[in-house]
Amino acid sequence: MQRWLLLWLVLLGGCAFVGAPTTSSSAPTIIDPPATLSDFRLPASSGGELSLSDLRGHPVLLYFGFTRCPDYCPITLGEFRRARDILGSEGVQMRFVLISVDPALDTPDVLAAYLQRFGEEFIGLQGNDATLRRISKEYGLTYRHGGGHEHHGSDGVAHSTASYLIDQNGRLRIVYPYGTAAEVYAQDIRALLQETP
Predict the structure, then answer these.
(1) Helices 182-193 and 72-87 meet at what angle, rounded to 10?
(2) Whose CA is closest to 61, among 44, 82, 33?
(3) E strand or H helix that includes residue 75
(4) Owning domain of residue 15
């Protein structure tokens, strides 16, 4: 319980809402010991439903956002794509996951169309408030509809902007602030892939 409280406090200090600073001065937060995450099941862009546990055996780089986001989300997903490219053949072992905090508009089909530009290893999950509330403390997730940000209008979604590296056993290993470069993701992913099971 204390580990979750510590993670929550770290993330509150490092997370930004849409419209907050656009660069990161924070270093990634290593979760040691790694934290076992609660499982959840959501409608997926790949069809049907997908659980976090279905991704076991693959490292996962996860982000909470939405498809209409004009800045934080596409920039972060673009860095994910660059990390995959840096990894070369090792990149196909990864799964890159966007969990939408705008489920009314981000249906599985909308997520699939949006993520096509990033690559076949990218999976979109249609979040729902009940599930997002249940797992929010584990990720330090915050989001609010009607963000009122000048880029989004009154129907935008303000949301935290951290990214999460989850290992092959479904454990949270590293939390990254917004603005993390692809090279940093790639280095950490490569180290994770080289660990002995």
Answers:
(1) 50
(2) 82
(3) helix 72-87
(4) 2-193
pLDDT at residue 25 is higher than 80: no
Q: What is the mean pLDDT of residues 153-174?
A: 86
Q: State how far the Cα of 159 lies from the Cα of 172, in Å rounded to an integer.
A: 20
DSSP one-letter code for 113: H
Predicted TM-score (pTM) of this structure: 0.83
Could you tell me the maximum CA-CA distance found in the chain, to the nearest angstrom?
49
Paired residues of 145 in beta bridges: 157
Tell me how many domains the chain contains.
Answer: 1
Burial of 12 (0-12, 13-18, 19+ CB in 10 A): exposed
The torsion region of residue 140 among left (phi > 0), alpha (psi -120 to 50) and beta comes to left
Characterize the bridge pairing of strands 29-36 and 41-43.
unpaired
